[in-house]
Amino acid sequence: MTEPRTGPEHFPERAFQYGKDEALPERRVLHAGPVTAVLEGGDLRYVRLGDDLVVLRLYAAVRDHNWNTIAPRFTRYNVEDGGDHFTVRYSAEHVSPDVDFVWDGVLTGTADGVIRAEMAGHARRDFLKNRIGWCVLHPMELAGTPASTGTPDGVVNGQFPDRISPHQPFFDMESITHATPSGGEVTISFTGDLFEMEDQRNWTDASFKTYSTPLRLPYPAPISAGERVMQTVTITPRGGSVATGAADDTVAVSVDVSHGTPLPPIGLSAAGHGERLSEAETDLLRALRPAHLHLVLDLGQNAWREKLATAAAQAADLDAALELEVTGGPNSSGWAALAEELGQSGVSVVRVFVYPAGALDSTAEELIAARDAFAARDITTHVGGGTRAYFTELNRATLPLAEMEVATYTINPQVHAFDNASLTETLAAQAETVRSARAIVGERPLAVGPVTLAPRFNPNATGADAPLPEGALPPSVDYRQPSLFAAGWLAGSLNALANAGADAVTYFETTGWKGVIERSDHALRVLTFHSWPGMVFPAYHVLADVAEFLGGEVLPVTVSDPLRVQALALRDGSRLRLLLANMRDGDATVTFSMAGLQGAAQRALNAATVFQAASDAGAFRKAVTAILETGDIRLTLPPFGLVTLDGHLTPA
């Protein structure tokens, strides 16, 4: 279903903030003696023993034959909060065109700190599933921590991996025990199935996940109507810290000016809709000073020459080079034709990532074929590869490193979870992928991207997806793309990847549903995507802020609560810029202090200013809403609001 949208009357505040005019899930803090947890729907999040985070999230997952997660609908829900103990009872159903599963859940927390989760469910019809059951997310801060697991064959000692593990660190788990930072200990036990663990940092989840049904078993697996699933998870703490219960709710931000990392080249992807850029779009995008335009080409398709010509013209208009992600034709064919087209166009090509037809990972044969073809036409570029999919595939592949001049992998934060909080959690894990990738590819340049909010495609699909309902967005489009949340997420991603030392990064697309500007010639709107023709998305302004520091450096920044506030610090000579982003739906008070900072000017991007920012980007960017006193700075960011602070550093 579509309708014309031309004005702000269609855009309530929540749509600007996080892309939907719907209330976010209700959260409630529950206590079980020394343990606290946040109840959200049927999940327990941020389970803490005192101040120590022991479980990032405890939840039940129902995943279909393509690993799509089928969201629950609660038909019964009751919470009994006894102050130092609790019981939550609910019934849920997971229904899609391919899945129909119902279950009853009970979450209990006792005064001595024990938390127990029970599931009793059944299929209402026959279907194929990849997983049904409890999942426990252990925080990624446990990396390197020793752990012991109870298995059917006895106790196995090991540790949470430091570098991202390509495969499961623990198998056949009946329990796992590990220490907590404050000297306590926690045991998590499982019944109803065999469990195992994977390192979810592979997909930029900030966790190690223990899940039911080992992956060594064939999947997808049939489940019959009436077949039951019954599981329990029990979290038992011992010792540890007592919660400080600090009354100060401010978020402290500090910037380390003692050293910085050169700001990497940042590019955009060519828009998948394939339309040419208008003059207005070109002017806006030129202001972002993109280093490159990323283009996906399939040499087995007839239209690749037209796609290349369009992208080459756009890159020239944007003063950008091309970065190519190319799959060859059958039997490593097509590379000579590509080299000929590039030679005739004269376009600058900074990198070419090379893949065989239909493959996710690069091979030596394809790389050699491409390099030989380019050499024959005197095409100067860096020929490399890695994976068209996620860091997981890079981590698991046998890479032809001897033939790779540059390495790459992509990022999107929604392989496993889709809510705002989970997307924010992934930002810290992005840096971990760079650290582990360096250990794999050595000193070769590392180009990360495209970085997108939604998956470009499903690399793990085992069959076709069901048709989209009328009016639904494609799975490669995220409704938050034109929102303030997306801008904050982008700032956090730039901070993570740049400080980790990525040599180049590609984000989003130029225009359209996956871009930073809505198409100016596209008058019909889908109800689930809140934009209007020519709308400048908030993420555009984050990239514009960074573009104004081209040639500068990114500085390490520390945030006391990065799940509430993300930050990005830039320096060019004596100029300093600090971007702050509130990632939640309540006000966030931020404190920031830096010796020698003078004349801090503030520009705010929030629900009150976003319409101007979206309608007249130039005027918005010239507006300075406040001049702050030097010294200690205290700001209150409204829900999902961003602020850009500019100042000058005087020598110490």
**Architecture per CATH nomenclature, i.e. the level-2 architecture of the largest domain:** Alpha-Beta Barrel
- Count structural domains: 3
Helix content: 10-25%
Overall pLDDT: 94
Count helical runs.
Answer: 11
Largest sheet: 9 strands, antiparallel
Query: What structural class do the secondary elements suggest?
Result: alpha+beta
Q: How big a fraction of the residues is strand?
A: 35-45%
Distance between the termini: 61 Å
**Global shape:** globular
Here the CATH topology of the largest domain equals TIM Barrel
The number of E-state strands comes to 39
CATH homologous superfamily identity of the largest domain: Glycosidases
CATH first level of the largest domain: Alpha Beta
Radius of gyration: 25 Å
Would you give an account of this structure?
The chain is an alpha+beta fold and 652 residues long. It has 3 domains: 27-238, Beta-galactosidase, Chain A, domain 5 (Distorted Sandwich); 251-255 and 554-649, Sandwich (Immunoglobulin-like), CATH 2.60.40; 264-548, TIM Barrel, CATH 3.20.20. It contains 11 helices and 39 strands. The strands form 6 sheets. Strands 2, 3, 4, 5, 10, 13, 16, 17 and 18 form a 9-stranded antiparallel beta sheet that branches.
